[in-house]
Amino acid sequence: MIGSVVHLWNFGTGSATATVDLGSSRPFLAWGSITFTDSLAVYDRDNGSAIEVYQVDGVTQWRAGDGGDHLGPANADSNLRPGGIRGFGRRVTFRLRSFHVDDLEHYGVGCVLTLD
Fold it and tell me: Which domain holds residue 58?
């Protein structure tokens, strides 16, 4: 097994991405976790953040949620992607984002563990 961790941070830009390259295609577990959130104003219902397994080998992952105040219609890129998956591939891209960029700064980590 090989383990990789990537750190992400977002300072009022809306989103950040980081990719883990496993060197060759292989089975893996990938998950993300927000490790710190700093509310720059008032932490209220307009605030929110997510870390997602956004793409595997350039293919955007299935949507885990859509609609509401901060997400888009069914095919929008702004929809939530899964926070963790079991998959197969070489490059795993994580996305950390804020739903109200004027109020939040946050940090997160993306972790990938190979299963071979």
Answer: 3-114
Whether the full predicted model's pTM is greater than 0.85, yes or no, is no
Separation CA 12–CA 104 (nearest Å): 7
pLDDT band for position 73 (cuts 50, 70, 90): confident
Question: C-alpha angle with apex 43: 11 to 37, nearest 5 degrees?
Answer: 40
**What is the maximum alpha-carbon separation in the chain?**
46
44: how many CB neighbours lie within 10 A of its CB? 9
Candidates 46, 45, 49, 47; CA nearest to 36 is 49
Torsion of CA 64, 70, 74, 78, to 10 degrees: -80
The number of domains in the chain is 1
How far is the C-alpha of 105 from the C-alpha of 14, rounded, in Å? 9
